[in-house]
Amino acid sequence: MTTTRPVPLTNATLAEIPGSIPKPNYDRAGLTPGIVHIGLGNFHRAHQAWYTHRLMQQGLAQDWAILGAGVRPYDAAMRDKLLAQDCLTTLIELSPDHRGAEVTGAMIDYLPIEAGNAALIRAMADPAIRIVALTVTEGGYYLDATSGVLDLAHEDILHDGARPDQPRTAFGAMVAALKLRRDAGHGPFTGLSCDNLRGNGHILRQTLVGLARLSDPSLAAWINARCSFPNSMVDSIVPATGPAELALVREFGIADNAPVTHENFRQWVIEDAFCAGRPDWDRAGATFTDDVHVYEMMKIRILNAGHQVLANAGELLSVATIADCMAHPLIAAMFDKVQRHEILPHVQPVPGVTPAQYLDLISGRFANPAIRDTTRRVAFDGSSRHTGFVLPILRDGLATDQSVNGLALVEALWARMCAGIREDGTVIQPNDPYWSDLHATALTARDTPRAWLDQAHIYGDLAQAPRFADAFETWLNRIWQDGTEATLAAYIES
């Protein structure tokens, strides 16, 4: 690392970046866009944009540059930061015994954030754009929690159905752009979800087709027939950027206002179904396959559900990061027992990797002390993450008459966390889009535990499953009476 004055990150200063740090070897001025990416946060820049950058380093994919986009007002701050540095990003890889940096440049512009999303629609209507990709979080697809299909009663969906030319949502903007393409005689684009949803391509298809049907049934049919929506699985642990990360990038000699740290692991498995071409991401390490499902099931159940197993216990015990949770003897032992007894039985192997081997890999990644992935970040939006990651496993356990005792404990820990007070008396700040409702219900559940399970939009009919509901009630009563550590110990010994 350098101790000289950090170099501001721009196209003009790339030559001044310390020579030990890899940087774009391609002419960024000669790149042309082929991808619009909506929801441009840290994960995208450390993952999908990195794969594209690596192709560009090989002299490939020069016509697949990325245009960043967002549909929420808070995206404007990131846009300002990235435009000020010509959309360059410093990626910092953190392994337990090594730190390394590189500068990537696959993104060349960030579209304006504006009501009605006119600039975004125009960009996606350009036939040069052949892929529209998204990372909008698991909870960003407007899915009805009970049916799993598009929530046609949501006010944003109602708005986009009534005013399709001035949409609020990313999906409404995609529909509007596809209408312009169809009406102009242009071809469709591929919609590529990069969110942690089982069958994310199928979900994106049903969302766009369902939304288009509200205003133009013929367009809905055209989208369904002409567009493609590959399923994909994405994997890399990418913490949020804070003061420590901003200081770290300066140690590398770079003044980057939006650096990204990440672990020394990436995986991207993609269904090879692109209606308008694609980059050869496999040349940068991605996997194209006709069967994404087994990969996504393994990752979502062991990694994503595993995060929820850890995070709420960590929050209650004031354990700051996921690595710290893995270093906590009770939390780590609970995690291992829930995984081996109640999650792995519902995961199939993928080529070359058994569920037990994948768990060992995930456990090592979670324990990486160089990755400061906060329990708060991982616990965020539990109403989507428990619904999407944990409860399907629990339902499988009930259906196959296998244990759900540990998963019931996981749900009880979430209910206790939503009461908003850690065991040391500190306040847990709101950490869910529906925090006020969750918080009120969690307080009621202290005396009436089953009130938590009566949230039908989350649990559906699980409140009527005695094996789960009885275990949940027992665990939640015990957490409130004896505390989290004593309850974890009791579960581990059971």
TrEMBL record:
<feature type="domain" description="Mannitol dehydrogenase N-terminal">
    <location>
        <begin position="34"/>
        <end position="282"/>
    </location>
</feature>
<dbReference type="InterPro" id="IPR036291">
    <property type="entry name" value="NAD(P)-bd_dom_sf"/>
</dbReference>
<dbReference type="InterPro" id="IPR000669">
    <property type="entry name" value="Mannitol_DH"/>
</dbReference>
<keyword id="KW-0560">Oxidoreductase</keyword>
<dbReference type="Pfam" id="PF08125">
    <property type="entry name" value="Mannitol_dh_C"/>
</dbReference>
<dbReference type="InterPro" id="IPR050988">
    <property type="entry name" value="Mannitol_DH/Oxidoreductase"/>
</dbReference>
<dbReference type="InterPro" id="IPR008927">
    <property type="entry name" value="6-PGluconate_DH-like_C_sf"/>
</dbReference>
<dbReference type="InterPro" id="IPR013131">
    <property type="entry name" value="Mannitol_DH_N"/>
</dbReference>
<dbReference type="InterPro" id="IPR013328">
    <property type="entry name" value="6PGD_dom2"/>
</dbReference>
<protein>
    <submittedName>
        <fullName>Mannitol dehydrogenase family protein</fullName>
    </submittedName>
</protein>
<dbReference type="Pfam" id="PF01232">
    <property type="entry name" value="Mannitol_dh"/>
</dbReference>
<dbReference type="InterPro" id="IPR013118">
    <property type="entry name" value="Mannitol_DH_C"/>
</dbReference>
<feature type="domain" description="Mannitol dehydrogenase C-terminal">
    <location>
        <begin position="291"/>
        <end position="480"/>
    </location>
</feature>
